[in-house]
Amino acid sequence: RDSVAWLANYLTSLDKTCLMVISHDPGFLNIVCTDIIQYSSQKTLDYYEGNFDAFRQARHISSDEEAEALLMGRDLDDPLDQEEKRPEEEASASGGVTAGLLDKASKISFPIPGTLKGHSSGKPIMELKNVYFAYNEQDGPMILNDISCKIFMNSRLGIIGANGAGKSTLLNLLCGELVPSPSPEGKQLGEVTKHRNLRLAYIAQQHMFHLSEFMNCTPRVYIQQRYKNGWDEALQRRLIEPENEEEAKMRKELAAKYGKYGNQVEDIVGRVVRGNEVLYEVQWANLPDQKQNTFENLAKLKMMGVTTLAKAYDERQAGQAA
């Protein structure tokens, strides 16, 4: 709740700024909002003066259950709950759906995960060690403070907590979409590790993050396109390509310091295990001769800011082995 309170205080301090917020948290809406706009099931915008409590009073909403249902998108004036609509009614409401989407014979079967090659049952498949995270490392609050956890092969975990507690942030760290921040003292950087042969699947809270380039596809085509080579192509791009110009510049500077002859890592093309250490075969930029490839450990790749390239290779190998 600390992060939600911080955000609410910050937004209310902007006295010369117009804000439009979307939230499922009535307490947050009460603090921040001076007016409420309801988007109804009739596709109209209904305006109400005051905060969320004033809106409840104007709509004669007495119970918290009714208020929660409204916040979650169900219009109380709609005589037919959206969850009770028949498939053909949903198809009609969406502007028409091809028969293939309603064909019960069209099913996608997902295989039951098998054993994880090279994994000992007594060891975790994913682990967080002393992880801190802040979206603004200079001024913002710490969303996660010194978090440690272990996830084992037979785990079925649910993450619960209040809005803003850091649930999505924790998942994004586990999935590799975010990286840990330094500790408040700047002396410690937590670790997020997973078994090199583990295949990880997740659905982002903001679905457009994944679906933006596939909006005109059916679910079947979407899966075929995204996993056409046996692994997640979208994840490969996020892991391999620099996130922004700043990261691209950082990679270039680190390569000049630690790369072979000052060159950047072009690709990871192989992997071997020697003793207890995993080494990755690096193909260097501007050195096309395979004899110039070298085997580097994760510590060296971390110094060069390209551990995500090793993760991308691990994902491809796990996909081929599945």
Short account of what is shown:
The chain is 34% helix and 16% strand. By secondary structure, the protein is an alpha+beta fold.
* Second CATH tier, the architecture of the largest domain: Beta Barrel
The stretches of 5 or more residues where confidence is low (pLDDT under 50) are 79-105
Q: On the 0-100 scale, what is the average pLDDT?
A: 80
Shape label? elongated
Helix fraction bin:
25-40%
For the record, the CATH class of the largest domain is Mainly Beta
Q: Secondary-structure element sequence? A: HHEEHHHHEEHEHHHHEEEHH
Keywords: Cytoplasm, Repeat
Domain Chromo: 263-322
GO molecular function, one term: ATP hydrolysis activity
Organism: Zooxanthella nutricula
List keywords for this structure.
single chain, 322 residues, OB fold (Dihydrolipoamide Acetyltransferase, E2P), 3-stranded antiparallel β-sheet, 13 helices, 16% strand, elongated
Structure description:
The structure is a single chain. A hairpin with a 2-residue loop joins β6 and β7. The chain folds into three domains: 2-79, no CATH class; 116-195, no CATH class; 238-321, OB fold (Dihydrolipoamide Acetyltransferase, E2P). It is an alpha+beta fold and 322 residues long. It contains 13 helices and eight strands. The strands form three sheets. The chain has a three-stranded antiparallel sheet with strand order 4-3-5, with helices on one face. A three-stranded antiparallel sheet has the order 6-7-8. Strands 1-2 form a two-stranded antiparallel ribbon. The protein is elongated, with a radius of gyration of 25 Å. The model is unreliable at 79-105 (pLDDT under 50).
